[in-house]
Amino acid sequence: MSLILLKFFHYLAIVFSGGVLVGGGLIQSVYTKANKIPDLNVARVLKLLGYLGLVAIIVLWITGILLSNFIYGGFSINSAFTLKIIAAGLLLGLSAFINLHVYNSNNKQLPPNKKIMKIGMMLGRFLIITVLISAAIAFN
Ligand code: HEM
Q1: Rounded distance from Cα 106 to ligand 1 centre (Å)
Q2: What is the pTM of this model?
Q3: % of the chain surpassing 90 pLDDT
């Protein structure tokens, strides 16, 4: 039963992290193309999406660590799995960094740096695709 619950929360968090990257990315690219800065409410939505993404990746780590230990007795599963956790670790670091950047710019009453946000979004997409491909290979 606990395995089913852990898997359910692992998958639920995947849905959330993907949604954040797709939804947040779309909003950001529409504003960038129009050369406009998001208004206060949209900025609030983007900030919330950023938090959600961070919470999702933390849930992925907690459930992922428990799943690896319960099912495989540790992290030495195969090399595709090693790549998966490296990419997931980078994604966690990236998400924490972007959230900190948004928090700091908010405190200074400045909009987040456009370049940092754009590169962060592209890197985030690349990393989540890497995690998904390596998960597909690791557990086939
Ligand atoms: C961005 C982060 C992550 C994503 C997108 C992700 C995605 C996935 C996906 C799609 C699966 C299903 C694969 C399948 O059953 O064929 C899976 C399973 C699994 N994940 Fe993750 N994962 C992430 C983070 C982690 C982390 C950090 C760990 C461990 C430290 C982990 C451990 C596992 C384990 C052990 C399974 C296999 C469960 C089973 O055998 O049914 N995951 N993950």
Answers
A1: 34
A2: 0.93
A3: 82
